[in-house]
User: What shape does this take?
Amino acid sequence: MTEPADPLNAELLELALEAATRAGAFLRDGRPDDLGVAATKTSAIDVVTEMDIAAEKLITGLLTDRRPEDGLLGEEGASVEGTSGVEWVIDPIDGTVNYLYGLPSWAISIAARKDGETLVGVVHAPMRGEIFRAVRGEGAFVNDRRARVRPAADQALALVGTGFGYLAERKLQQAEVVRRLIPEVRDIRRGGSAAIDLCDVAAGRLDAYYERGLNPWDYAAGDLIAREAGALTGGRPGEPLSPALAIAAPPGLFERLQTRLDELGAWHD
Ligand code: LIP
Assistant: This one.
């Protein structure tokens, strides 16, 4: 693996990789057979396990030990204003419900941002034995192979990933969007981890992905990885990828899908 050109990016990437791999081993090898729900958030199905909380502590502990001046934003409560300008955006388990049920599609997502720009992104999917990584301007990789998006497919031939929220009202609208879209594409896939879905676009395993209602920790790393692999990412036409709407696809397909999703109301509940 070639060293990133910028020494700061090299340090941030090395730290993100170390934290993600250590958390991945802990989560893969230490998952209790009787794992249960430790708490819920926006609804009874928006769950947190003891392993989410412990993994975030492991990651933030390592990052703070090495770079105490950095800011932290984590799904399970890490929130530190830093003084260095660098902020870590952490999802200790993206795909928590999959992890809770013992399904393999979950990941650790760690991104480093400076002045609002994502410099480094790492997504580690331990049950797949895969680490996706990207440094801004230096391409995206899955393990040691370069990741590239698939050539833009016609929308009718596109395999499209998506996901659903935790509130019934939002899920109703999301289901209506899928009902209208599914006859217009090859098929739909719902993997349960936005970070992995974005990386699968980067690796050419999905033609496109979209979802409404993500949090920054779900997409910060995967967005950079997808863009560095050749995807366009964004929200409504002219808007950046955000919790309102996240879309990722190769140029050519991205614009058509973005227009269609806007017509179908994928951006609102
Ligand atoms: C998950 C996202 C996924 C979405 C799920 C959930 P979490 O994040 O990665 O795309 O469909 O509802 O929000 O909660 O497992 O970190």
In short: The CA atoms of residues 39 and 207 lie 35 Å apart. The two ends are 43 Å apart (CA to CA). Residues 155-264 form a domain with the D-Maltodextrin-Binding Protein; domain 2 fold (CATH 3.40.190.80).
